[in-house]
Amino acid sequence: MNETNITEKIKALMDDTGCEEAEAKMALDFMGGNFNKAIAFVGAMLKYITAYKAKISIKNENIFGLIHIITNNKNLDLLKFSTVMSYNPVIYEQDIKVDWFSFEKEIYSCRLLNGVIENYTKTIDTKLKEFVNVNLKDNKILNAQDVKTVIETFFSDSDVNVEIVAQELTLREFRKLPDYFPEEIPKESSVTDSSSLIELEAIVFEDSAGKKVEDVVVGDKVLAKIIDTRDIAHYIGHLIGAKKEQTMIPIPAEVQSVEKKDNGYVLKLKYSDLIFGVSHVETGRVLKILETRDTTTWNTKLLPFLINN
CA 66: distance to chain centroid? Predict the structure, then answer.
């Protein structure tokens, strides 16, 4: 591949995903120059955009509202902001777990309902937006609890209750409308393509009160640390929170497969859609289990009922 093509691919990848030049180069290099696979890699790893979806009730005034805030956590910019405030309690019944675009549509739909306080909504739209924007950079707002605190502080003179959830997005996901205009992904760029999966050597922590490796099942969550020494491993460790300063740290991982091999087992651990850990565990080892899958089958649960009847 000539240098001009490489430069064009790097620029296209940066434009399409919002990643940095160094990140684009690494993604293309690791994916052998395959542009579609590089997009999938960056998309799975670099989630800079966060949509905060909140609903509030101001109890002493019987006012209900929805607040939508979208930020770029990389440079702490406010990308979108919208609200609706109303005396109508149906506002507070809205589901804040829907995707960001559906939630934004819901806010504008709710503005047409009876009970909306138009002037108050406009005031909140302006003043709360300014308050969030200032706090975003001054206090480095990076998660839902941070945003919840900012909203509660803004309404500190009132008896306010705030419920909030955060949805992480890549720039590419943010630019396309979720679920409404599905993007056709070329088959070769599918994130399930085994050639685009990244496997890193890892170790699973042990615990005498845990579960023997022979009894571990798919779906169990374990505590594992990446011990892969490759440069890409350290880069990925930083992205997924498995590296603190210069040291790899243990983080939860879900067991994807358990394979008996020689004198032990090979556990495949999932960190993200593209990132997996592979750990070799000797037979008889007792592993630390953070969360276990319910393996009780329907017929086992039904058996006592059948015996008693």
Answer: 22
Q: Round to whole Å and give the CA distance between 170 and 19.
A: 9
Pairwise CA distance, residues 264 & 281, whole Å: 6
CB 167 within 8 A of CB 189: no
At 95 the three-state DSSP class reads: coil
Considering the entire predicted model, what is its pTM?
Answer: 0.56
> In terms of DSSP H, where are the helices of 140-295?
144-154, 171-175, 231-239
Compute the distance between CA of residue 147 and CA of residue 73 in angstroms, rounded to an integer: 12
Q: What distance in Å separates the CA atoms of residue 14 and residue 39, rounded to the nearest whole number? A: 9
**Per-position pLDDT tens, the chain of length 309:** 556 677 888 888 888 777 778 888 888 888 888 888 888 777 767 777 899 999 999 998 999 999 999 998 877 888 889 999 999 999 999 999 998 888 988 998 898 888 999 999 999 999 999 999 999 878 777 789 999 999 999 999 899 999 999 998 876 677 665 544 334 333 333 434 454 567 889 999 999 999 999 999 999 999 999 998 877 777 777 767 788 777 899 999 999 999 998 889 999 999 876 788 999 999 999 999 998 875 444 344 444 434 444
Residue 170 near residue 92, CB atoms below 8 Å: no
